[in-house]
Amino acid sequence: xxRVKSVSLFLCLLATGCGPSTSLPSYAKYDxxxxxxxxxxxxxxxxxxxxxxxxxxxxxxxxxxxDFSWGKTHHLRIENGKLTIDGADGGELKPGDRIVVxxxxxxxxxxxxx
Length: 114
Fold this sequence. Notes:
Blueprint: H1 2-16, E1 27-32, E2 37-42, E3 48-57, E4 60-70, E5 74-79, E6 82-85, E7 88-92, E8 97-101, E9 107-109, E10 112-113
Parallel strand pairs: 2-8
Antiparallel strand pairs: 1-2, 3-4, 4-5, 5-6, 6-7, 8-9, 9-10
């Protein structure tokens, strides 16, 4: 009897998709100034905006400003290497850092929650 239940459950999952959802979230991906920072923001279906400005002398960045907003409540700012997430201090960044932001606002830099 246990084998019949297992087969029935498998057929239910296969035929109707009655199991857990397996779709993965999509992300908007930004490569800022040729790899200075990489930012991935989970798609919230509400749109996103990016404003940026940077200055440099030769290959050295002397001033930078990146301002993201998405959903109706989330905001991420990078200003001269300092990260701010929804108004809270997110610490210092280094060139090449990868920033991942979930739709909930949770933010990770190089895999570590900030």
